[in-house]
Amino acid sequence: MANLAAAQAWTGIVNTSSVTSSTGNNTYKCVFDEDFKYVLLPVSYGIVCVVGLFLNLLALYVFIFRIKTWNASTTYMFNLAVSDTLYVVSLPLLVYYYAMGDNWPFSVGLCKIVRFLFYTNLYCSILFLLCISIHRFLGICFPLKSLQWGHVRYARRVSVIVWVVTVVCQSPVLFFVTTSMKRDSVTCHDTSSQDLFGQFVIYSSVMLVLLFCIPFLIIIVCYCLMARKLLQPTRGISRMSQSKKKSVKMIIIVLMVFIVCFLPFHITRTLYYSFRSWDLSCQTLNAINLAYKVTRPLASTNSCLDPILYFLAGQRFVKFAGNKMPGKPQNEMALGIVPNAHLKNSNDTDTISKDGKS
């Protein structure tokens, strides 16, 4: 395989296994080994679709039909479940697409919608995790302020803002994403056409900073302050309470999910876009291409892990899902519905463990 000789040669490379670009009279060609994705992607997307659809529909059923009194955490978790459900219902199209060897038999509009739903779900998940984290942070570190800003009406307004911001920010995907003919098949690109690839990279970089880097840093800061508060010894009590232990465990779980699902995808995608504009060997480009393709389904697994976090947040969530008496106070506690009156009389750190997605 020949090496690339100029930055311009790779400016227009878009999601293909056999890449050809030219500078002047010279032609450079890299053949990417992507046979793995025709097994990996259909299988992984299929699993995410089945498991994610079941868990999110169950979560939506609990939110809508079993919970009569919502709090801020419930509101954020419900919107998170809606976002995940919208995404997983689009996955059968991708399963078919990759199983057929990158052949998109559907319309260009449907290709745009599928890619749009992926990025919308990705950043809705990140922003709603941010909202839940800030809400828990206020409940642990500033309980009095939490009584004011943690009200459900504010959570509803914030949720609307999250949806509007995400949809507006991801609407350019509908413009950039397109299809193209390659031999006898149609490719549904997840980037853009060759002539718009440079603009797409700039757009993706802005989204990376605004919708991933900044929320991620805020979440880390919030969880560090919360962990420090939770780990402080309580007067007269030598052991850490069970609620505190559970809260610390849930902080670790949420951070791990965030790091496993979102961080690798954004790192490999950034390298994937950047390396195609540099003078690098085909072996290096093939390696980063492999890493990027592997982390795409990894990012999709947040649609399965989000509902699992709901279950972990309340020990009686599963029992609550089948309970025929949704009005019981103990059932409401299973999803973190804690009346404000309870917070007024308590300054402990149980709030985080009762705050839903801990």
Task: For the structure shown, list the relevant keywords.
receptor; 4 strands; GPCR_Rhodpsn; 358 residues; disordered N terminus; 14 helices; transducer; P2Y purinoceptor 2; globular; two-stranded antiparallel sheet; P2Y2_rcpt
Describe this structure in words.
Belongs to the G-protein coupled receptor 1 family. By secondary structure, this protein is mainly alpha-helical. The chain has one domain: Rhopdopsin 7-helix transmembrane proteins, CATH 1.20.1070. Helices cover 66% and strands 6% of the residues. The chain contains 14 helices and four strands. The protein has a two-stranded antiparallel ribbon with strand order 1-2. The chain has a two-stranded antiparallel sheet with strand order 3-4. The longest helix is centred in the middle third of the chain and has 35 residues. The N terminus and C terminus are likely disordered.
Please summarize what this structure is:
This protein is mainly alpha-helical.
Reconstruct the topology from this structure.
Layout: E1 18-23, E2 26-31, H1 37-66, H2 72-88, H3 91-99, H4 108-141, H5 143-149, H6 152-176, E3 179-182, E4 185-188, H7 197-231, H8 242-261, H9 263-275, H10 282-300, H11 302-313, H12 317-321, H13 329-333, H14 340-344
Antiparallel strand pairs: 1-2, 3-4
Helix pairs in contact: 1-2, 1-3, 1-10, 1-11, 2-4, 2-6, 2-11, 4-5, 4-6, 4-7, 6-7, 7-8, 7-9, 8-11, 9-10
Number of helices: 14
Mean pLDDT rating? 78
In the CATH hierarchy, what is the class? Mainly Alpha
Q: First CA to last CA: what distance?
A: 49 Å
Helix-and-strand structural type: mainly alpha
